[in-house]
Amino acid sequence: MPQPGLALHALYKSYPAPHRGKKPVLRGVTLTFGPGLYGLLGPNGTGKSTMIRIITGGEAPDSGQVLWGGRPISALGIRYRRVLGYMPQQQTLYESYTGRRFLAYMAALKEIPRRAVAAEVARVAAEVGLQAGLDTRLGACSGGMRQRLLLAAALLGAPQLLVLDEPTAGLDPRERVRLRGLLARLAAERVILVATHVVSDVETVAAQVVLLRAGTVVDAAPVPALIEKYAPGGGLEDVYLAVFGEGDGR
Ligand SMILES: Nc1ncnc2c1ncn2[C@@H]1O[C@H](COP(=O)(O)OP(=O)(O)OP(=O)(O)O)[C@@H](O)[C@H]1O
Ligand SMILES: [Mg+2]
Predict the structure, then answer these.
(1) Has residue 250 got a pLDDT over 60?
(2) CA of 2 to the centre of ligand 2 (A)
(3) Of 90, 202, 219, 243, which has the highest C-beta tally within 10 A?
(4) Whose CA is nearest to atom 1 of ligand 1?
(5) Is the Cβ atom of 46 under 6 angstroms away from ligand 1?
(6) Side-chain half-sphere of 39: how many Cα atoms within 13 Å?
């Protein structure tokens, strides 16, 4: 078995645009990710979520390939679903479900054996600090609780590839710090990809940060190397401002 790793090869994607034919969103993204945590940074509308939907198999690229362990994810099918944990940027939840029922439902979708579900739900709930809120109906959950439930769902089955789209949106500082610690711990033995606008979420824990501008990778390197190159003496936020400036990057 080759080293678990994700490779994106020359991904292109455009969407139909009214009056303009097509709007290119990804313009030749090539990247490789071994075990560790990767931050994906870029302004609004730069293609982060599109890239993530393609990585997670929800959408197909116009051209290019996503490989896991050297094999195209389209060929891996269900085997890819088993290694993947995905937290989307937005998701509609069944408002009448409790958190526990939602997680059990997601566990079933992931084909976790029925006898293992209760323990697995308790495990992921504990990881995100949600033991207490599990029997609240989703309709009555705060934004931060819903966010933590989505994260817990992504952790079900201890996936080797964890893809999180804006995981800290709506989390209070305490939960944000907890998440950072959790991700740092999990990254030791899996690939974790985190798209975020919160630079501090990835600054101290990322093996590498990918800077995406208008569907093109500007750079992908460890944080110290990016600081050295774009903002000597500064931090990752200064790198962001130096690279993306005041404009919106589109
Ligand atoms: N299904 C779609 N149909 C048409 N256009 C789309 C679709 N999905 C995304 N887009 C467009 O593609 C571009 C990239 O969107 P995407 O959501 O990937 O950006 P993002 O970097 O995740 O932004 P944000 O930081 O706001 O989450 C945007 O201009 C968006 O309007
Ligand atoms: Mg997005």
Answers:
(1) no
(2) 31
(3) 202
(4) 15
(5) yes
(6) 28
Is the CB–ligand 1 distance for residue 179 below 6 Å? no
* Cβ 42 under 6 angstroms from ligand 1: yes
Residue nearest to atom 8 of ligand 1 (CA): 50
Ligand 1 atom 9: residue of nearest CA: 50
Residue type for position 123: R
- DSSP string computed for 103-156: HHHHHHHTT--HHHHHHHHHHHHHHTT-GGGTTSBGGGS-HHHHHHHHHHHHHT
User: What tokens does 64 get?
Assistant: 């290019």
List the CATH code of the domain at 6-244.
3.40.50.300
| Distance, CA of 13 to CA of 151 (rounded, Å) | 27
Which has more pLDDT, 143 or 11?
Answer: 11
Ion ligand 2 — residues with CB < 5 Å: 48-49, 89
For 201-222, how does the pLDDT look when each residue is reduced to its tens digit (9 = 90+)? Answer: 899 889 999 999 999 999 999 9
Q: Where are the domains of the chain?
A: 6-244
